[in-house]
What does this fold into?
Amino acid sequence: MSDVTQRLEELTLGTRLRLEELIPRESLVDLTASYHELFGVPLKVFDGSGKLLAEAGPAPSLYVWLASLRGARAALEYVVDHVKQLDPGAGDVSYPCVTGASYRVSAIQYEGRRLGRVIFGPYLGAVPAEVPPELLLAEPDLDPARALALLAEMPRAREETITQVVAHLRRGLEIILFSGHKALLTSNMHLASVKESFKELQAKNQSLQEAFDRLKELDRLKSNFLATVSHELRTPLTSIIGYSEMLHEGLAGELTGEQRDFVGTIKEKGEQLLELIKGLLDLSKLESGTMSLRKSELSIAETLNEVGSTLAPAARKKNVALSVQVSAGLPRLWGDAERLRQVFLNLTENALKFTPVGGSVTLSATATELAATATEDEEDDDGAVFFAAKRPALQVRVTDTGIGIPEAERSKVFDAFYQVDGSSTREAGGTGLGLSIVKRLVDGHDGTISIESNEPQGTVFVITLPLQRAGQR
It folds into this structure.
């Protein structure tokens, strides 16, 4: 059997159709009960394996009495066994009982497949005038008067009536079986579709996981490569800068004006390259998790004032107003002073770089609150995090009146090596590493960083840092 044929057999159930799969047992019970109520004849429904699925009508009183008599009980058991084994073929067949009653066995078929049988009876066509000889032969000591009285209570139906009932039941079952088969096929097709979709999804997930693992490994190799190369470059570059400084200062002899300019250019470009290498090293350490933060209590006012003092000469040289505005009485912050200084230096340098002559850059700090982040336990606690108290924090804003960052680009500028495309950005230069490092350092302090528009022009970087240590209440 081919795979396609086998699959089709599975979907349509092939020759494995079962009666109780197409008609719920409760429906069969209701159906048999209604037929018994209409015609008064007991009936039973069996599946293809002979399992009783439904029955209606109590055993006649005559049969209850005969079951208490040894000889009659054996004769009845013989009849019942034969009725159960009777093959009605594609139609129905009758079988006589020792009591003079009859059983009618009818096949339940659907699309040429035998699904089960219906057994009507026992029933009498007419009440006999005397006890049947077969019954007296099986039970010689039988009480004839009682037997005749109980025979008169037996369900009665003419053979023509039973034939009509059987035909009516068969047609009704065909309709019900068709509906049940249709519903079952629809359900199986839906389940098959869901299974195929699930298999495809599993395959895609597996493919994505493998691709993710490869990318993760490549990213690790890239970080290791950057760290190694940066470290190896920094050593000779430091020597280049040192010797260029000595040449510039005339330690190896006086230089002409043009020579001093050339050496100054070497020193300047070397320092730029050194800053790039330091950025690469910082990025690789942050990505690998090997950069440790030395946190302690610090004053945000001192940090921001130090940044302002450091960059004041650059601001004056470009004719940009640089100011630091810190609210009085701010609490001390738990963080790494050196790394936070790096964060604000980077943001302020960027602000100065992209602010035209006559513009302004402002560093400000105020007290605020930071929404609590859910721990793993809180996430499992039916949303308890929504009721958690907010954490006290400090908010630092770096505001400039420069070229600004388009709204569509604000979510991308924190990606490593990403630069906003535009002539102004290209003119200002840069490696695209600074904001990525800033973002990771802020994350390392359990803080947040976002970008706002400074209407009508410019940009505002908003950094929010919690006052307390992570997990501290």
